[in-house]
Write a structure and sequence with these properties.
Blueprint (H helix, E strand, L loop, with lengths): L1 H21 L4 H23 L5 H18 L1 H16 L10 H14 L1 H13 L3 H21 L2 H18 L1 H7 L2 H22 L13 H15 L2
Helix pairs in contact: 1-7, 1-8, 2-7, 2-10, 3-10, 3-11, 4-5, 5-7, 5-8, 5-10, 6-7, 6-8, 6-9, 10-11
């Protein structure tokens, strides 16, 4: 769990620093920063999406995952959690500012959708090797600074999601290491890349997307690979 704890700490520290720095930025600079971050997220999403060896698997995963997410109302639940945290944080003036709920939801998705989250957590749980999560911690820390400078303290609270998601993966690492094959991880990564592209579209305000409703796609990706493996013998 060391890697996850360090990752949680870097998001917390980065979020606080970014919030403090952002208070002195003009609206024009904030807009430029969010545009720059969106472009980087697009580049990362494209890189991840190209991991697929069969785009139809990604298409099926996104479609089925989106339907499941809508039925489960995942976006509504995540927004509710963000609003609840915002209500609690509003009691403290120094936590105010920015779009709390947007920062919480956006940062939570960015920090937890990538392949380093899954592979790093499993590696940490199985062998105690937290090198991959340490690299992710540094990247997430800087990302948290950039995000929080625009969206405020909500980004800091995404550390809770990082702790829960990565902690769960680490504790269940023996199971996932036996189940996930290399092909499954590749398709899962590619599916996550498409979700990352959706995050960028949302950040640029090109279209409002219920991004959390696509999270089940990360479950459907390896499941479809498994089913195709059985069918193909």
């Amino acid at each position: 769990m060391t890697g996850t704890l360090v990752n949680t700490a870097t998001v917390l520290i980065g979020g606080v620093l970014g919030t403090l720095l952002g208070s002195g930025l003009s609206a024009r600079i904030r807009e430029t920063v969010i545009t720059g971050m969106s472009l980087v997220v697009i580049a990362l999403g494209v890189k991840m999406a190209l991991e697929t060896s069969n785009i139809l698997i990604v298409l099926g995963s996104i479609t089925l995952g989106g339907i499941a997410g809508e039925l489960l109302h995942l976006q509504r639940h995540l927004d509710s959690l963000g609003n609840l945290l915002e209500a609690k944080a509003s009691r403290f003036p120094f936590l105010a500012g920015g779009s709390f709920s947007q920062g919480f939801v956006t940062a939570s998705l960015v920090f937890c959708v990538g392949p380093m989250t899954i592979l790093g957590s499993i590696q940490d749980g199985l062998s105690g090797d937290n090198s991959l999560l340490m690299v992710k911690s540094v990247l997430d820390g800087f990302t948290a600074v950039a995000f929080a400078s625009v969206m405020g303290m909500g980004v800091t609270f995404s550390a809770i999601v990082v702790l829960i998601v990565q902690g769960s993966l680490t504790l269940s690492s023996s199971f996932f290491s036996q189940v996930l094959t290399e092909v499954m991880v590749s398709e899962l990564t590619a599916t996550g890349g498409v979700i990352m592209l959706g995050i960028a579209v949302h950040m640029l305000e090109l279209k409002k997307i219920r991004l959390a409703n696509f999270l089940p796609a990360l479950v459907f990706a390896p499941l479809i690979v498994w089913i195709l493996g059985i069918i193909q013998g």
